[in-house]
Amino acid sequence: MRHLLLFTLLPLASVAVAQTPPPVAPSMSAPPRTILVRGTAERELDPEKLDVLMTYRFSDNVKESERTQSQEESLRQVLSRAGIAPEKLVLEELSASGYGGLSKVGNSTVALTKTYRLTLDNRRQLHTLVPQLVQTGADNLRFVNLRNGQLAATKADLTTLAVVDARQKAGLAVKAAGGQLGGVLTLVEVLPDETYVFRPIPMSRSLTEMDKAYQSYQERIRPSVELITPTLRKIKVQVAYDVVFEVKP
Q1: DSSP 125
Q2: Cross-strand pairs, 43
Q3: Does residue 16 have a pLDDT over 50?
Q4: Whole-structure pTM over 0.70, yes or no?
Q5: Per-residue model confidence (pLDDT) at position 111
Q6: Quick one: DSSP state of residue 106?
Q7: Distance between CA atoms of 112 and 69, rounded to whole angstroms?
Q8: Sheet containing 140-147: order of strands
């Protein structure tokens, strides 16, 4: 009887073991929560050099060029009195056209447009020089190509300030939401008129999601940041970085 009971219990034990569910594989860790913030910094520099474009427009006779010669001589006299070397002035552009499609043989009068480029090493000369240039016949003056030797060093300093600015903004937002700000996951410089290509640093498992979120974010803020906005008096240097931080509970 004892043997019969043993053989009766063994099949039941086998069934119990077969019905035991397999162990559950550990699930993938959830992707980190993140916050995307743009940090900016800017500074103004005095230009050490700049170029002045001067345009002269007038009619002249191709057989009698005294007027154009007189105009250029008057311009060079002004520069000489200001102590500016002659090689600082170059003829940038010259164009000529006839009137009303008339024969250029019978009608020797043409419309001339001359543009000079003047390189200045001292911007303070503009205060007295501009009125004198206009008096020589220039009807359009433009100030371009402002330069400063500290531009690269200034941008390097502003890069640090821009990232610090991003961290401060992110820290305030995360603190208000009851979380803690973690480390940097990605760091992308914003360049002017750039087709943004997101190349995140491989530091998390949610790069695909972050890529899509960043591209959507860029579509909403399409107006880009200008690194250098030249004005008559200053060179405005601006740096911007988009920074993705991890958010901890």
Answers
A1: G
A2: 237
A3: no
A4: no
A5: 76
A6: T
A7: 13
A8: 89-97, 109-120, 49-61, 140-147
Specify the CATH number of the domain 33-46+150-248.
3.30.110.170
With respect to CATH, is domain 49-147 assigned 3.30.70.360?
yes
Residue 196's pLDDT band, with cuts at 50, 70 and 90, is very low
Going from N- to C-terminal start, the domains of the chain cover: 33-46+150-248, 49-147
Q: Are 46 and 232 within 8 A, CB to CB?
A: no
Nearest-10 crossing angle of helices 126-135, 66-81: 160
Could you tell me the two tokens for 217? 């974010």
Instruction: Provide the pLDDT for residue 72.
Output: 86
User: Binning pLDDT at 50, 70 and 90, where does residue 211 land?
Assistant: low
Is residue 236 within 8 Å of residue 44, measured between CB atoms?
yes
The pLDDT of 215-230, averaged and rounded, is: 48
Contact present, 180 and 172 (Cβ < 8 Å) = no
